Amino acid sequence: MSDKFYKSKKWKTKRQSILRRDEYLCRECKRYGKTAPATTVHHILPIEQRPDLKLSSLNLISLCNECHNKMHDRYTNGLTNKGKQWVERISPPLLSE
Question: What's the CA gap between 13 and 28, in Å, rounded?
Fold first, then answer.
């Protein structure tokens, strides 16, 4: 996705909304009883696959930088197994949207 989207007012507003919803905490760390400040809002289903969900709250989670890096394979530009687990966790509600 181009930088244009990530610099848009719509994205910046949605990003703040998601961080606030998640209480500025990393949702992945929280699953394991840890507390880490969230610095990134992650698209569970990548924009390249589902551009229609780029602003859907169900498709967005707050993550710390370390966990965000664990969601993506930076060499293949695909999702890691951990990223795919989140897709499986949220796909049924999203697919019915």
Answer: 22
Domain spans in the chain, listed from the N-terminal domain onward: 3-90
Q: What is the maximum alpha-carbon separation in the chain?
A: 36
Any bridge partners for residue 95, and if so which? none
Q: Is the pTM of this model over 0.70?
A: yes
Say if CB 38 and CB 27 are below 8 A apart.
yes
Residue 93 has pLDDT above 80, yes or no: no
The residues, any chain, with a CB within 8 Å of residue 40's CB and separated by 6 or more, are 62, 63, 64, 65, 68
Alpha-carbon Rg for the chain, nearest whole angstrom, is 13
